[in-house]
Design goal:
mainly alpha, 6 helices, 0% strand
Amino acid sequence: MISLSTSGRISDLWVSLMNEESTAMEKETDGLAWRVTLSILVGVGWLVFLLLWLVFYASAYSWEKNVAIFLLSLLLLIGVLGAPWAFWAYSKQSAVEKEVWKQKGFKWRFWVSILVGLSFLLFLIYWFWMLAEPYGILQNLAISIVVLLIAGGLLAAMWAPWGMRNEQKHRSH
């Protein structure tokens, strides 16, 4: 039979553990609420923009310019949502994730990857706004695929050696 003092200590221990878990969870989710709210508002705002654009303004532009506007709006969406979520993820890294940043060649590959993705989108925006009109749908699709293949090839050629060199370090994770 458990005495009253033992059960009191067990309940105190239980409360203490629950408080620690609650504190850890609060620390883990700190700053999450406003980012989720921002994501919802920006996502809904983006969809409203697209709907209003398609209904009221798209007919005044060629389909190529409409693609450029869509890509530009997508780039703005990525920028507005990417920055706060990237900062949150960076601040919540585990010890293993922090070690990855210290590995030789990771940081510059990370930043070059962002630059390649940004360049890919900016080139397509420029292409569809300035150069695409005299070409047909298939030719513009071909340009888009070629640019995507070039960007993907650059990223694969850049990351593959790093991945092969560091495979054993990350296999257990």
